[in-house]
Each structure stands twice: as structure tokens, then as C-alpha cells.
Amino acid sequence: MGTPNLSVPARAESAADDNRPRSGVIHDNVRHTADFTVVGNHLAQHPHLSLLAIGLGLYVQSVRGGTPVDIKSLTARFKEGAVRISAALRELEAHGYLRRERNRAPDGRIVTRTVSCNDPRARRRPTDPERPARRTGPARPERTGPQRRAHPRRTAGRKALPAVPQAGGEIPGLLQTAVDLLTDLRRHDSRLMLSATDTAHLAPGVAAWLERDVLPSGVRHALTTGLPDDPLHRPAALLAHRLTDRLPPPPPFRTQSAVVPPPRHPLQNCEGCDRGFRAPETEDRCRDCRTAAASHP
Length: 297
Prior knowledge:
single chain; mainly alpha; three-stranded antiparallel sheet; two-stranded antiparallel ribbon; 10 helices; elongated
């Protein structure tokens, strides 16, 4: 008998074995034909999301539309606590995989809904114009005349007002509530008499506060408390600064919320001083007349 050749492999290696990696994971895959979800590697291998956020993002994308994904439901579904799940939801929201849309329900309530985005890189708001490619040639001369845009708002002979925060979504009636609040400031301090132009400039900033679950009374208190005793030469500029400098943080992540707006009572004339005021129809006198009547029975 001949001497066996020890260098010959015990069996012939197949082509599939040759293509397998020598270290790391080896995939033993089968083709899915039902009950599967297509998820992008930009989420599954995201370089900045935590492992919990990636797993939660995969779960949210895999469930049917209408499945509750609020913190309470997720805590009941998984063993991670509410604190960790809430932090993971904020991560997904910060990177665009979740977003909140606030809408007014038929009964008047403002309801926040959660939208899952499977590829935030491809999402562009409908109002955003296409950005032109950067020009490498000589600079274009500055346009003059009516086509030139000025931002922030500027009028002839008047310094531009500071920019104000902008609301993230369009909620019906929110901007009108902001205008009403600004118009009513002069009743609390006569120096806060605003023009229509100033009111239009400041209203989006007030709407941004209201969108963050701040009550109108809270916005009014932030704008009117601690004003200087000196004459206010530019009250609109002071209000714009306060709207930006004191802007509160967004509310905690919530997928289901109902914020009931304050009731808007009808406008009527006081039976005592004939001043216009808003109150339920059962009241026929303004607050000042009611207070005076109570102090002098």
C-alpha cells in the first residue's frame, strides 16, 4: 500500500464554503415569503442610535397601522422600563424616524399622532423648494427693487425686528389664538400697543409657545411680567426677544395627548361700565364691576 498524502483535505470544499468568511458572523438565511418587513440598513446599522432605539425602531416599522406605540403600551409589551423606552423614542424622533403631528379632532380636541418614517433621508417637506446646485462661477449681482427679499421683516426707515421662533406644524386656530393674545396685551400694559405689522411678525413666536403646551395665560405672564419702568420705545422688539430667549423646551414625547383649548366666550358689553368683555352669557358685568360690587355691598 502506498503512503497516504496527509496534505489532501478530508473532503472537497464546495464553492459555498470558499465564499464563507473565516471569522465573524456567518449568515444562514432563507428567503422570506410571508410575515416580514423590509427595513433599511441606515436604521439597522445606524452609527448614532443606541441598540434599544434601533430595536424599537424596527418594532415600530413592523407593526400594523393603528397599533399603539405610546410609552404605556410599549412598557407593557417589553421588559425595558418607561424611562429607557421614552429615551429611545426621543432618539428616533431626533433622527427623523418618528415624528409627531398635531391635529384638531372633530370635537375640538388637539390630538397628537405618531408617524413612523422608514427612511427620513428621503423625506422633504412639501413647502421646501428644491435647492439649486451651488454655482462655481462669479457671484451674481445683488438684486434690487421689489424682487429683493428682506429677512427678518424690515420696513422703510425702521430697524428690523428680531426673528421669533416658528411653530413646527399647522394647527387650525393656533395662529388666530396667538393674534388674539398679542392684541389683548394692551389691556394689561398700555405700552404694549402693537401695530398690525408687529402682531403679524410676533404671532408665529406665540404659536410656537402654544404648540409646546404652554397655556395662553403662561405666555401672557412671560411677556408682561417684569417689564422695565422706563418708556418702551420698541415694545415689539422687546416681546420678540422674550419669545426667543424664554422659549420653553418641547413637551415630553407623547403619542396620544388631548389638549383642550380654553373656551372662547362671546363678546358682550358690561351693564355697569359698557366696556366690551368676554365672559359666559350668564355674566352681565365685567370683572372690574363685579369686584367693585363685591367690595361695596
